[in-house]
Amino acid sequence: QAKSMGRGDYQFYNSEMNASTLHRLTLESGLRHAVERDELQLTYQPQVELVSGRIVGVEVLLRWHPEQQRLVMPDVFIPIAEETGLIVPIGEWVLRTACSQLVAWRQAGLPDVRIAVNLSARQFRQPGLDDMVSRVLADTGCHAGCLELEITETVLMERPDSAAQALQRLSDMGVRLAIDDFGTGYSSLSYLKRFPIHALKIDRSFVRDIPYDADDAAIAGAVVAVAHSMGLSVVAEGVETLAQCEFLRGLHCDHAQGYYFSQPLNAAALASLLRDGLVTGAQIGAA
Ligand code: C2E
Ligand code: MG
Ligand code: MG
Ligand code: MG
Q1: Ligand 1 pocket mutation, candidates 35, 118, 154, 205, criterion most atoms within 8 A of CB
Q2: To pair with 164 at 20 to 30 A between CA atoms, which of 136, 153, 186, 192?
Q3: pTM reported for the whole predicted model
Protein backbone atom coordinates (compact mmCIF):
# COMPACT_ATOMS: atom_id res chain seq x y z
CA GLN A 1 0.00 0.00 0.00
CA ALA A 2 2.85 2.37 0.78
CA LYS A 3 4.18 1.82 -2.72
CA SER A 4 1.01 2.98 -4.37
CA MET A 5 1.11 6.26 -2.52
CA GLY A 6 2.90 9.21 -4.03
CA ARG A 7 6.30 10.27 -2.77
CA GLY A 8 4.81 13.26 -1.00
CA ASP A 9 2.59 10.99 1.03
CA TYR A 10 5.45 8.87 2.26
CA GLN A 11 6.16 10.99 5.29
CA PHE A 12 2.76 10.06 6.64
CA TYR A 13 3.44 6.40 6.39
CA ASN A 14 5.00 5.42 9.66
CA SER A 15 4.32 2.73 12.17
CA GLU A 16 1.30 4.62 13.39
CA MET A 17 -0.28 4.59 10.02
CA ASN A 18 -0.89 0.97 9.22
CA ALA A 19 -3.25 -0.50 6.70
CA SER A 20 -6.26 -0.21 8.93
CA THR A 21 -5.64 3.49 9.59
CA LEU A 22 -5.47 4.08 5.87
CA HIS A 23 -8.62 2.09 5.37
CA ARG A 24 -10.33 4.20 7.97
CA LEU A 25 -9.19 7.45 6.39
CA THR A 26 -10.48 6.25 3.03
CA LEU A 27 -13.83 5.40 4.58
CA GLU A 28 -13.93 8.73 6.38
CA SER A 29 -13.34 10.80 3.27
CA GLY A 30 -15.81 8.70 1.31
CA LEU A 31 -18.43 9.08 4.00
CA ARG A 32 -18.17 12.87 3.76
CA HIS A 33 -19.73 12.68 0.31
CA ALA A 34 -22.03 9.73 0.81
CA VAL A 35 -25.24 11.73 1.14
CA GLU A 36 -24.67 14.04 -1.83
CA ARG A 37 -23.52 11.12 -3.99
CA ASP A 38 -26.67 9.25 -3.11
CA GLU A 39 -24.74 6.28 -1.74
CA LEU A 40 -26.78 5.73 1.40
CA GLN A 41 -29.71 3.36 1.36
CA LEU A 42 -32.27 2.41 3.94
CA THR A 43 -33.34 -1.12 4.62
CA TYR A 44 -36.39 -2.02 6.64
CA GLN A 45 -36.81 -4.99 8.97
CA PRO A 46 -40.34 -5.98 10.03
CA GLN A 47 -41.31 -6.04 13.69
CA VAL A 48 -43.97 -8.65 14.25
CA GLU A 49 -46.66 -8.83 16.90
CA LEU A 50 -46.18 -12.27 18.41
CA VAL A 51 -49.82 -13.05 19.20
CA SER A 52 -51.12 -12.20 15.74
CA GLY A 53 -48.16 -12.47 13.38
CA ARG A 54 -49.01 -9.02 12.05
CA ILE A 55 -46.29 -6.56 11.03
CA VAL A 56 -46.72 -3.62 13.38
CA GLY A 57 -43.48 -1.79 12.75
CA VAL A 58 -40.28 -1.67 10.78
CA GLU A 59 -36.81 -0.83 12.00
CA VAL A 60 -34.85 1.37 9.65
CA LEU A 61 -31.29 0.11 9.12
CA LEU A 62 -28.80 2.16 7.18
CA ARG A 63 -26.50 0.81 4.46
CA TRP A 64 -23.68 2.52 2.60
CA HIS A 65 -22.88 1.53 -0.93
CA PRO A 66 -19.87 3.51 -2.15
CA GLU A 67 -19.57 3.51 -5.93
CA GLN A 68 -17.46 0.63 -7.30
CA GLN A 69 -17.03 -0.80 -3.82
CA ARG A 70 -18.59 -3.37 -1.57
CA LEU A 71 -21.51 -2.59 0.66
CA VAL A 72 -20.42 -1.17 4.01
CA MET A 73 -22.34 -2.18 7.11
CA PRO A 74 -23.26 0.26 9.90
CA ASP A 75 -21.03 -1.42 12.50
CA VAL A 76 -18.12 -0.21 10.33
CA PHE A 77 -19.23 3.27 9.30
CA ILE A 78 -21.52 4.48 12.12
CA PRO A 79 -18.60 4.74 14.60
CA ILE A 80 -16.69 6.84 12.03
CA ALA A 81 -19.74 8.98 11.38
CA GLU A 82 -20.11 9.37 15.11
CA GLU A 83 -16.50 10.46 15.73
CA THR A 84 -16.43 12.89 12.83
CA GLY A 85 -19.84 14.36 13.56
CA LEU A 86 -21.04 13.26 10.12
CA ILE A 87 -23.74 11.31 11.91
CA VAL A 88 -25.65 14.56 12.41
CA PRO A 89 -26.40 15.29 8.73
CA ILE A 90 -26.54 11.57 7.93
CA GLY A 91 -28.97 10.94 10.77
CA GLU A 92 -31.22 13.73 9.58
CA TRP A 93 -31.17 12.25 6.09
CA VAL A 94 -32.12 8.84 7.54
CA LEU A 95 -35.03 10.28 9.50
CA ARG A 96 -36.31 12.36 6.59
CA THR A 97 -36.05 9.49 4.12
CA ALA A 98 -37.72 7.04 6.49
CA CYS A 99 -40.59 9.40 7.32
CA SER A 100 -41.17 10.13 3.62
CA GLN A 101 -41.18 6.41 2.91
CA LEU A 102 -43.74 5.76 5.61
CA VAL A 103 -46.02 8.47 4.23
CA ALA A 104 -45.60 7.03 0.73
CA TRP A 105 -46.60 3.54 1.94
CA ARG A 106 -49.64 4.96 3.65
CA GLN A 107 -50.63 6.92 0.54
CA ALA A 108 -50.28 3.72 -1.46
CA GLY A 109 -52.93 2.21 0.80
CA LEU A 110 -50.66 -0.18 2.68
CA PRO A 111 -51.51 -1.12 6.28
CA ASP A 112 -50.23 1.34 8.86
CA VAL A 113 -47.01 0.53 10.62
CA ARG A 114 -44.62 2.40 12.83
CA ILE A 115 -41.03 3.16 11.86
CA ALA A 116 -38.24 2.75 14.36
CA VAL A 117 -35.15 4.88 13.70
CA ASN A 118 -31.84 4.44 15.56
CA LEU A 119 -30.27 7.45 17.23
CA SER A 120 -26.57 7.38 18.13
CA ALA A 121 -25.06 9.04 21.20
CA ARG A 122 -23.90 12.10 19.29
CA GLN A 123 -27.29 12.62 17.69
CA PHE A 124 -29.03 12.24 20.98
CA ARG A 125 -26.83 14.89 22.61
CA GLN A 126 -27.02 17.27 19.66
CA PRO A 127 -28.70 20.51 20.76
CA GLY A 128 -31.87 21.06 18.81
CA LEU A 129 -32.56 17.37 18.25
CA ASP A 130 -36.22 17.86 19.09
CA ASP A 131 -36.46 20.82 16.68
CA MET A 132 -34.90 18.72 13.93
CA VAL A 133 -37.32 15.86 14.58
CA SER A 134 -40.38 18.10 14.60
CA ARG A 135 -39.23 19.87 11.44
CA VAL A 136 -38.80 16.54 9.64
CA LEU A 137 -42.21 15.34 10.81
CA ALA A 138 -43.84 18.57 9.61
CA ASP A 139 -42.00 18.59 6.26
CA THR A 140 -42.83 14.97 5.46
CA GLY A 141 -46.34 14.89 6.89
CA CYS A 142 -45.43 11.93 9.08
CA HIS A 143 -47.48 11.58 12.25
CA ALA A 144 -45.35 11.78 15.42
CA GLY A 145 -47.08 8.72 16.87
CA CYS A 146 -45.83 6.64 13.93
CA LEU A 147 -42.21 7.36 14.80
CA GLU A 148 -40.22 5.44 17.39
CA LEU A 149 -36.67 6.49 18.22
CA GLU A 150 -34.25 3.83 19.49
CA ILE A 151 -31.56 4.85 21.96
CA THR A 152 -29.15 2.53 23.76
CA GLU A 153 -29.17 2.41 27.53
CA THR A 154 -25.49 3.43 27.79
CA VAL A 155 -26.35 6.75 26.15
CA LEU A 156 -29.10 7.32 28.70
CA MET A 157 -27.07 6.27 31.73
CA GLU A 158 -24.09 8.51 31.01
CA ARG A 159 -25.95 11.72 31.77
CA PRO A 160 -29.29 10.61 33.13
CA ASP A 161 -30.60 14.07 33.97
CA SER A 162 -30.05 15.70 30.61
CA ALA A 163 -31.11 12.45 28.92
CA ALA A 164 -34.39 12.49 30.81
CA GLN A 165 -35.03 16.06 29.66
CA ALA A 166 -34.23 15.29 26.05
CA LEU A 167 -36.50 12.23 26.14
CA GLN A 168 -39.28 14.24 27.72
CA ARG A 169 -39.20 16.83 24.93
CA LEU A 170 -39.44 14.07 22.31
CA SER A 171 -42.14 12.26 24.22
CA ASP A 172 -44.15 15.49 24.56
CA MET A 173 -44.15 15.73 20.77
CA GLY A 174 -45.83 12.33 20.66
CA VAL A 175 -42.78 10.40 19.46
CA ARG A 176 -42.33 6.91 20.94
CA LEU A 177 -39.05 6.00 22.58
CA ALA A 178 -37.41 2.60 22.84
CA ILE A 179 -34.29 1.44 24.65
CA ASP A 180 -32.18 -0.55 22.21
CA ASP A 181 -29.86 -3.45 23.10
CA PHE A 182 -31.44 -3.60 26.54
CA GLY A 183 -29.43 -5.54 29.08
CA THR A 184 -26.00 -4.94 27.55
CA GLY A 185 -25.20 -1.67 29.27
CA TYR A 186 -25.03 -0.72 32.86
CA SER A 187 -28.66 -0.71 33.70
CA SER A 188 -30.21 0.39 36.88
CA LEU A 189 -33.86 -0.47 36.75
CA SER A 190 -34.69 2.46 38.99
CA TYR A 191 -33.45 4.79 36.27
CA LEU A 192 -35.92 3.30 33.86
CA LYS A 193 -38.73 4.82 35.85
CA ARG A 194 -37.34 8.29 35.31
CA PHE A 195 -37.34 8.05 31.55
CA PRO A 196 -40.51 8.57 29.54
CA ILE A 197 -39.97 5.49 27.39
CA HIS A 198 -42.43 3.20 25.69
CA ALA A 199 -40.54 0.05 24.83
CA LEU A 200 -37.52 -2.11 25.64
CA LYS A 201 -35.69 -4.11 23.03
CA ILE A 202 -34.13 -7.27 24.45
CA ASP A 203 -30.62 -7.47 23.05
CA ARG A 204 -30.06 -10.30 20.64
CA SER A 205 -27.23 -11.71 22.77
CA PHE A 206 -29.92 -12.85 25.24
CA VAL A 207 -32.15 -14.19 22.49
CA ARG A 208 -29.53 -16.25 20.68
CA ASP A 209 -29.41 -19.21 23.06
CA ILE A 210 -32.97 -19.32 24.29
CA PRO A 211 -34.79 -21.50 25.10
CA TYR A 212 -31.85 -23.84 25.80
CA ASP A 213 -29.66 -21.56 27.91
CA ALA A 214 -31.31 -21.31 31.32
CA ASP A 215 -29.64 -18.00 32.23
CA ASP A 216 -30.66 -16.28 29.03
CA ALA A 217 -34.15 -17.68 29.30
CA ALA A 218 -34.37 -16.26 32.83
CA ILE A 219 -33.04 -12.87 31.69
CA ALA A 220 -35.50 -12.66 28.82
CA GLY A 221 -38.34 -13.55 31.18
CA ALA A 222 -37.21 -10.96 33.72
CA VAL A 223 -36.98 -8.21 31.11
CA VAL A 224 -40.50 -8.94 29.89
CA ALA A 225 -41.85 -8.99 33.46
CA VAL A 226 -40.15 -5.73 34.47
CA ALA A 227 -41.18 -3.99 31.26
CA HIS A 228 -44.81 -5.05 31.57
CA SER A 229 -44.96 -4.08 35.22
CA MET A 230 -43.87 -0.59 34.15
CA GLY A 231 -46.34 -0.45 31.28
CA LEU A 232 -43.68 -0.82 28.59
CA SER A 233 -43.86 -3.08 25.60
CA VAL A 234 -41.05 -5.46 24.70
CA VAL A 235 -39.42 -6.22 21.38
CA ALA A 236 -37.06 -9.21 21.08
CA GLU A 237 -34.18 -8.67 18.64
CA GLY A 238 -32.42 -11.26 16.54
CA VAL A 239 -35.10 -13.96 16.53
CA GLU A 240 -33.87 -16.61 14.13
CA THR A 241 -35.76 -19.80 15.02
CA LEU A 242 -39.26 -21.06 15.62
CA ALA A 243 -38.16 -22.31 19.06
CA GLN A 244 -37.09 -18.79 20.09
CA CYS A 245 -40.32 -17.41 18.72
CA GLU A 246 -42.46 -19.90 20.65
CA PHE A 247 -40.53 -19.35 23.84
CA LEU A 248 -40.90 -15.56 23.59
CA ARG A 249 -44.60 -15.91 22.87
CA GLY A 250 -44.86 -18.02 26.01
CA LEU A 251 -43.26 -15.18 27.98
CA HIS A 252 -45.89 -12.81 26.52
CA CYS A 253 -43.17 -10.81 24.83
CA ASP A 254 -45.07 -8.35 22.62
CA HIS A 255 -43.01 -8.05 19.45
CA ALA A 256 -40.10 -9.72 17.73
CA GLN A 257 -37.81 -9.04 14.83
CA GLY A 258 -35.13 -11.16 13.25
CA TYR A 259 -34.15 -13.35 10.35
CA TYR A 260 -36.79 -15.90 11.31
CA PHE A 261 -39.37 -13.41 10.07
CA SER A 262 -37.36 -11.41 7.59
CA GLN A 263 -33.98 -9.92 6.82
CA PRO A 264 -33.85 -6.15 6.46
CA LEU A 265 -35.43 -5.45 3.06
CA ASN A 266 -35.42 -2.62 0.56
CA ALA A 267 -38.51 -0.42 0.39
CA ALA A 268 -40.15 -2.27 -2.48
CA ALA A 269 -39.74 -5.70 -0.89
CA LEU A 270 -41.01 -4.41 2.43
CA ALA A 271 -44.05 -2.90 0.69
CA SER A 272 -44.99 -6.27 -0.77
CA LEU A 273 -44.68 -7.91 2.63
CA LEU A 274 -46.95 -5.22 4.06
CA ARG A 275 -49.43 -5.78 1.27
CA ASP A 276 -49.65 -9.45 2.29
CA GLY A 277 -50.04 -8.35 5.90
CA LEU A 278 -48.24 -11.30 7.45
CA VAL A 279 -44.76 -12.66 7.30
CA THR A 280 -44.50 -16.34 6.49
CA GLY A 281 -42.53 -17.30 9.57
CA ALA A 282 -45.11 -15.69 11.82
CA GLN A 283 -47.96 -17.53 10.16
CA ILE A 284 -46.28 -20.86 10.72
CA GLY A 285 -45.41 -19.88 14.26
CA ALA A 286 -48.90 -18.66 15.11
CA ALA A 287 -50.62 -21.80 13.78
P1 C2E B 1 -29.43 -2.39 16.16
O2 C2E B 1 -30.21 -1.13 16.16
O3 C2E B 1 -29.39 -3.16 17.42
O4 C2E B 1 -30.00 -3.23 14.94
C5 C2E B 1 -30.14 -4.61 14.94
C6 C2E B 1 -29.06 -5.28 14.12
O7 C2E B 1 -29.27 -6.68 14.12
C8 C2E B 1 -29.07 -4.88 12.64
O9 C2E B 1 -27.72 -4.91 12.19
C10 C2E B 1 -29.85 -6.03 12.00
O11 C2E B 1 -29.60 -6.19 10.62
C12 C2E B 1 -29.36 -7.19 12.81
N13 C2E B 1 -30.29 -8.31 12.83
C14 C2E B 1 -31.62 -8.28 12.64
N15 C2E B 1 -32.15 -9.51 12.78
C16 C2E B 1 -31.13 -10.34 13.07
C17 C2E B 1 -31.05 -11.76 13.34
O18 C2E B 1 -32.03 -12.49 13.34
N19 C2E B 1 -29.81 -12.25 13.62
C20 C2E B 1 -28.70 -11.47 13.63
N21 C2E B 1 -27.53 -12.04 13.90
N22 C2E B 1 -28.74 -10.12 13.39
C23 C2E B 1 -29.95 -9.58 13.11
P24 C2E B 1 -27.16 -3.78 11.21
O25 C2E B 1 -28.19 -3.42 10.20
O26 C2E B 1 -25.82 -4.24 10.76
O27 C2E B 1 -26.99 -2.54 12.19
C28 C2E B 1 -26.07 -2.58 13.25
C29 C2E B 1 -26.22 -1.41 14.18
O30 C2E B 1 -25.90 -0.19 13.51
C31 C2E B 1 -27.65 -1.21 14.68
O32 C2E B 1 -27.89 -2.07 15.76
C33 C2E B 1 -27.61 0.25 15.07
O34 C2E B 1 -27.04 0.40 16.35
C35 C2E B 1 -26.66 0.84 14.06
N36 C2E B 1 -27.44 1.52 12.99
C37 C2E B 1 -28.03 0.99 11.90
N38 C2E B 1 -28.67 1.94 11.17
C39 C2E B 1 -28.48 3.10 11.84
C40 C2E B 1 -28.89 4.47 11.61
O41 C2E B 1 -29.61 4.80 10.66
N42 C2E B 1 -28.48 5.40 12.53
C43 C2E B 1 -27.73 5.07 13.61
N44 C2E B 1 -27.37 6.06 14.44
N45 C2E B 1 -27.32 3.82 13.85
C46 C2E B 1 -27.71 2.84 12.99
MG1 MG C 1 -31.98 -0.60 16.78
MG1 MG D 1 -30.49 -3.50 18.95
MG1 MG E 1 -26.89 -2.92 18.27
Answers
A1: 118
A2: 136
A3: 0.91
